[in-house]
Amino acid sequence: MRTEDLIKALDADARSKAMPLGRAWWLAVGVAAVVAAAVFFMTIGPRPDFMAATHTMRFLSKFVFTVALGVSAFALIQALSIPGASSRHAKLWMLAAPVLVVIAVVLELFVVPEAEWGRRLVGTNWYICLTFIPLIGIGPLAVFVAALRYGAPTRPVLAGTVAGLLAGGLSATLYAAHCFDDSPLFVATWYTIAVLILAGLGALGGRFFARW
After folding, report:
1. 130 close to 191: Cβ distance less than 8 angstroms
2. Tens-digit pLDDT profile for residues 109-140
3. Signal sequence span per UniProt (predicted)?
4. pLDDT in tens, 164-181
5. Angle subtended by helix axes 192-209 and 126-150, to nearest 10
């Protein structure tokens, strides 16, 4: 069988599932959100001054980055789940979150004295960030890898990596509600490292559990 014929057969199989693949992905996101929220509220929960913090631009900017990451990763992983589907535009949208955080960092460097840069980058809770973003995201990652198996990704490692980014965007959004370090310098450094941990785990999950 030629490669093109095999891809067409996989595509037909993916579309003939009892539940449409698109609906399956929305269900997976719903389940993952419930799992992540349960872990978040049972462990750290939102910061005590959450409502007051929502009136500050630095606090809100964290969610712009994390939500942009989650939305763009969700679009890309759906495309990667369908053999032969074009993922070019979805890949371009993956640049949105990095570009936004770079812009925020540049603005921060302009308004904050240079002597403060190091302190804001390190923050006060970097170790909590590196612990809880992966902890909150590991359950959603398992859900997303399972959803990949429902489809038929032809590039399972890439799809698994994007599943990790999607889980990271979800868990980082919840963690941002707890985090007391609102500087874009902190977010660009520690949130990124924490999300990349999940992306690496997702690559392994895709490699071993999403192959066909």
Report:
1. no
2. 999 999 999 999 999 999 999 999 999 999 99
3. none
4. 999 999 999 999 999 999
5. 30
